[in-house]
Amino acid sequence: MKNYEFDCGCSFGVLDGDSIVTKLQTGLPSIEFDIKQASYKCCKTWELICSGQTKGVFQLESNLGKSWAKRIRPKNIEGLAALIALIRPGCLKAIIDGKSMTQHYVDRKNGTEEVSYLHDSLEPILRSTQGVLVYQEQSMQIAQVIAGFDLQQGDDLRKAIGKKQAGLMSVVKDSFLKGAGDEGIVSREIAEEIFGWIEKSNRYAFNKSHAVSYAVCAYWSAYAKAHFPINFYCNYLFYANGKQDPQSEIRDLVRDAKISGIQVSPPSIVNMDSKFSIRNKVINFGFNDIKSVGEKHVEKLIQVIDSLERSLSKPIADWSWYQFLVNASHKINKNVMVSLVSVGSMSHFGMSRSKMLYEFETWQKLTDKEKEWVIERQEEWDCLVDALSKLSPTRKNGGGTFNTTRNSIIESLVMLLKDPPYSLEDSPGWVSNTEKETLGIALSYSEVDSCDASGSNSTCKEFFDGKRGNIILAVQVSNVNEYIVKNGRSKGNPMGFLVVEDNTGCLETVTVFSDEWKKHKGLLYEGNTVLLYGKSSGEASRGRRRHQIDDGFIVQKVSQI
């Protein structure tokens, strides 16, 4: 057994194959460990949850889960279970004294609202949830203490709450009030108020046993992410095709991985991986993760490369682009070949993607007989233009075995290879768009890389990692949501919430208040590249009411790039 030690004080051993394990089998290496060994006091895991970096964490991977995890900041399983229950629609929509039950919990936990109890007898039951009734079991306990309910009556109350049975709730109410009178702990007036509170809870109360089991699973997934982030991300990417929207899932995971400092790269013809894998601490896309490339295409590709490696007596990693072009390219489906080159799977050849595509297109214009002639003599030259220069029948040593009507065509191809009609350099914008089309997300560059971003002084990751002050971000706007302000001096006016990204990652909590939204809305549309001037929400909120607790980015000015 290999023992892992972490700087947060946690440790556990990697188990043998006969043990009950949780396995992150994602390329090389795979990791096996007994999740039951995971300490529930791991500071690194709780810090990850409280930071809102919960993409991939069970029950908390939505924007809602991320946002409220930052607000509630649970530090134990009981607090995590409460978070999971509190972000369900019922608690968020149950409004009391102008605030949701979820917000009451947060404000009380953070000390901005006093924790109070309708009666002293409720404190032991509600203390763990800041005096807020969150669970069905709490309602059952209250009924037991206040009204002397037995197990059957408590179960009737549970059914009335859980199944939202109004008729049964009315019967239970009569029993509750009668029992409260018999117990004499509270007055009838308070008993009615308590039951009214319980009755309202039937819209949102969650089963605590479910919440705790969900919390344990959430903690386990957060633990794996905190200690084995590369394997964690690769595992989730590997199984993203099982999600309702695989491409959206992959985009979100890659963005999250980038902001966590994990590199995700295009597939490689050298690695020949069909699915996501880990190579040298880098996550690599597989060939099957390319749009329009199917399993049969990959099987054929692997067969072609294996056969040629044997016949050429060297691995593909030692081939030149010219060798790959003349030996393999015509044996691979044309669309697949274009996709492989376009996503950068052949970057190790040291040639631009545009030039490889251009030469492949030229090679495709040759007849089978001409290709055969070049292949037989391939060792005489090291590039396509030299080979075709000798192919023409009118040239010395040209062979003279071809139809002379092809002469002008070959000469034209040679001329265009020597002097292409357009640049064969890879522009960041072209690479970014091509990778989006074929992989679903840009990996090598972002749209910002094709713009003049010299006016920026920070990247998304630098801001995420804590850089503060007057920040200028060069970003692409990925998502825009307009919101009508409901309170305060801007009531009734629109404001904006953005998701922005650059090549270092993504920021999901970018806020544009009403005054700035009115000025700059015309520039803040999906796909546009802009400079955002602003500060963290913590700095910008000094002296003004905060609209959010998240330490996001507050936009003060916008300019086009």
Describe this structure in words.
With 561 residues, the chain is an alpha+beta fold. The protein is built from 24 helices and 14 strands. Helix 1 crosses helix 11, helix 7 (136-147) runs antiparallel to helix 8 and helix 9 packs antiparallel against helix 10 (188-201). The two termini are 55 Å apart. The model is unreliable at 12-29, 394-400 and 543-549 (pLDDT under 50).
Strand count, sense and barrel status of the largest sheet are: 5 strands, mixed, barrel
Low-pLDDT runs: 12-29, 394-400, 543-549
Integer average pLDDT? 87
Tally of strands? 14
Helical/strand content category: alpha+beta
Strand order of the biggest β-sheet:
10-11-12-14-13
- Coarse morphology: elongated
Radius of gyration: 31 Å
Intertermini distance: 55 Å
The number of distinct helices, counting runs of at least 4 residues, comes to 24
Hey, roughly how much beta strand do the residues contain? 5-15%
Question: Helicity, in percent?
Answer: 40-55%
